[in-house]
Amino acid sequence: LVGGALALDLETVVRAYLQQTIGGLISVCQRLLPVGQRQASALLWHIKPEIIAAAERSRDDRSDDAFWTFAALVDIGGMRHPTLSTRLFIS
Question: The organism sits in which domain of life (predicted)?
Answer without folding.
Answer: Bacteria
